[in-house]
Design brief:
Chain lengths: ~375, ~375
């Protein structure tokens, strides 16, 4: 049986290669080399797979229009795992993309039973404030709330006419006890992905959806539906890239429902120190053993913090890696270093949040 | 097995008594007697069943607020069968109801594959123009298009969290090949019915949905969902009345998909003459036989035209009935009389449509 990827579970898929083979996702490695000014996420194979990225690369190189579509589901606090997509968006914004940013308040409401009002507040005070503070220019994005977009709702109903229950059952494992809002929800997600290509927006245009691998079911469905609706809308199949899921400090996926697994963007210095101290590493059982045998960075969550977020410079990272593997750098010191980096980042982020907070209300208003 | 009522099929349920027993619908006969100034539809048992009409009667008698909720599905041309609901609405408007009128453009779109734009045009030029021309004061109604109501969409998603696929399968017979928009649609209908009771509208208020018996599945679902959401919203269970389905001239239900079965509100004199001439009657095989044995008005579609629409005066109707049963009035003459009545009505309606057409645009605009 194929490995099932469920965007709504907390489990981390172990075998990326198998997933890629099963679902026809291509390796990103070679195309990263052809990409001008690739981000650290591209260079380090954190973005490891894609579908039709060639089309986007061509648009970037020829300076043609293209769209980046992404969503944020307001639920709980934002952590470093969520930051990956923001880093990707900033890269695309630097490369002249038109960014469509969907606040998936209906998804929070339907899959997490969060009221639409709470979802709205979380989106504004937590997510959008962080996005802007991290460096994304929201004023340049096409930002909307799912529950308020007539266009998306209508498109979902239209496209849903072409998708039957058996198909959704096969993709998402729905059954008789699945609630009907959840059953319909994937169509809203598909409409989010495809609506920038409607004539009233950009018309048929290359578009890309940068996602975690857990979101691939929505992408496959969106591409299937785009194919079926080609005669009606002339949709160009949406491209996608897949990034690894940020590992949690305690193993598994970094998740806001397990606070010890995550570094939140609004964590205090004390919280960070405690969490990093408790984090799983790739070190030996004793300091002596580690000095002799060296550490295993690829099994180390602290190392992944450097790779994903803290050390964008490749040479600096390589040095750290060598120091670990040779036994020169032991876990205690490495954790102290990580805490220093993290605290610098979080302190700076706090300052940025403060200055963003003043204008975020106006940004939302301008988009309504 | 219980008789299944399917709002989306063209078949006419034969056994109303059985339906009432199976689904707990009460007879309207006794409560009609307690109703002040009952309409001809009430007096003649065309409205034959109800749920909780007592609550509405009380509101009418005490001059308390109450809501009438109804929808129109823009699909094809409007015929005498559609006129029943309009007559009911006019009665309620005369009895101080707050009328919520939903243009079910999503229903046309999803169940009939009519584009939302076509549905909008049909709603305005055909349905709403006719409603106003028949005497309903749309300016006093709370009129909205389903596809444009954020509130209804949001409520549908919220309430859909409490309804699972198995339930909808049992009510509507959905299966693996049902399309997902159709599967979700009943939740929109439920949200239409319940949304007038949201705090931002009337708050919890007695409400009534006058429908054809084929719409009962939506009502049962709406009442079930209202019960489950009582703690969240305090909904008062919506009341309902059930009217018989207007018989078609050629047998079965009057349906716009079978033009010969229906008198359309915009039919020409020639069309009406032809259709009435071809209609099924309760007459004998020969004029001689009929003069001797008399006719059977209860098997006669022409008689039902008088009962449902053409002869609101009960004494006049009784005289006609007696003349038929005694053999004094034969079918040919009775049809001529019906044609005369119909043409008078349609000519008058045409004139009214003309004068309404000028202001219908503004009425729609005022409601947007």
């Amino acid at each position: 049986m194929a490995i099932q990827i469920d965007p709504w579970s907390d489990s981390i898929p172990q075998d990326y290669a198998k997933l890629m083979e099963d679902f026809g996702i291509k390796s990103f490695e070679k195309i990263a080399e052809k990409t001008p000014d690739p981000s650290h996420l591209m260079r380090r194979k954190i973005i490891f797979g894609h579908r039709d990225f060639e089309r986007i690369l061509k648009a970037i190189k020829k300076e043609n229009d293209y769209v980046v579509m992404t969503g944020l589901m307001p639920s709980g606090r934002m952590h470093l795992g969520h930051k990956l997509v923001v880093d990707e968006l900033i890269w695309y914004q630097d490369h002249d993309a038109k960014i469509y940013l969907c606040v998936a308040d209906l998804e929070s409401h339907i899959t997490r039973e969060i009221s639409l009002q709470e979802a709205r507040e979380a989106a504004i005070n937590e997510y959008l404030t962080n996005f802007q503070a991290l460096g994304l220019n929201l004023e340049e994005c096409n930002l909307y709330f799912q529950s308020q977009s007539d266009v998306v709702q209508k498109l979902a109903h239209t496209l849903g006419n072409k998708v039957n229950f058996s198909e959704l059952k096969a993709i998402y494992g729905f059954g008789g006890d699945s609630n009907v809002s959840h059953i319909f929800y994937p169509m809203i997600d598909v409409a989010d992905i495809l609506h920038p290509q409607l004539e009233e927006f950009e018309g048929p245009t290359p578009s890309i959806v940068p996602v975690g691998i857990d979101q691939d079911p929505h992408l496959r469905l969106a591409r299937d539906v785009a194919r079926r609706s080609e005669n009606d809308y002339g949709f160009i199949l949406p491209s996608s890239t897949y990034h690894r899921l940020m590992p949690g400090l305690t193993g598994g996926k970094m998740s806001s429902s397990k606070p010890k697994s995550a570094i939140f963007l609004t964590d205090s210095i004390e919280e960070v120190e405690k969490k990093v101290a408790d984090a799983i590493t790739g070190g030996g059982h004793t300091v002596e053993e580690q000095k002799k045998e060296g550490g295993s960075p690829d099994e180390c969550i602290i190392y992944s913090l450097y790779v994903y977020h803290l050390m964008p410079d490749d040479e600096e990272l390589l040095e750290l890696r060598k120091a670990c593997e040779s036994g020169k750098l032991i876990c205690g010191d490495c954790k102290k270093k990580a805490i220093k980096f993290l605290n610098k980042f979080l302190k700076n982020h706090k300052k940025n949040r403060k200055s963003v907070k003043k204008k975020i209300g106006k940004i939302i208003e301008d988009h309504s």
